[in-house]
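Hi Q.,

Before the meeting this afternoon, I wanted you to have the guanosine-5',3'-tetraphosphate prediction in hand. No need to reply - just skim if you have a minute. The sequence and ligand are here:
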Amino acid sequence: MANEYYVGYNKIHKLVKSLAEEITASGFTPDVIVAIGSGGFIPARIMKTYINRPIFTVGISYYGVDQQHFSYPKKIQWIDETRQQLEGQRVLLIDEVDDTRVTLSYCIGELLNHKPEEIAVAVLQNKRKVKGAQFPPEIKLYFAGEEIDDLWIKYPWDALEIDEHLLMCGKKEIEV
Ligand code: G4P
Ligand code: MG
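Predicted structure with the ligand bound:
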């Protein structure tokens, strides 16, 4: 379909590498990585190769079955709040895509309750579009691996046949 954008593992790895370089160059040194599941899991793991910090995961979903939006994002898994693992910490928050920004902003709002010192946000792709939510003013650092039009991104972890997915990515995938 014309409005789809296929992305492969190689490209994702390289996007994360360039994000890590940008984050390091900014002077931000995270204490912990927080991955927003499920899309942020694999990018966060790759990030750990470049910025070796413990990964915590949170699960938030804005879509129910049949791609229907819930009326608000739902927490489906959260960091053990009693251990206050984020208090005073510099958090690198990772998700795969900044689309409407609703899930991301909700997640940031919840993480701020844990009183981190700072939260920096990193995504593989940011879609250029009118966003449904804005980041709170506490967010000073934002990194996007690439800026894209409002396309539907096809990620390799959703592929039933990874070889077909790679073909859809085109030759560029192995060249980039
Ligand atoms: P945002 O705050 O990160 O912009 O997310 P938003 O609420 O707009 O999007 C909700 C869900 O839609 C997220 O999945 C996000 O990953 C997914 N999504 C948005 N755009 C795309 C896209 O172009 N391609 C794909 N494959 N997914 C997209 P989720 O409910 O958090 O579930 P999960 O897939 O991460 O588990
Ligand atoms: Mg997601």
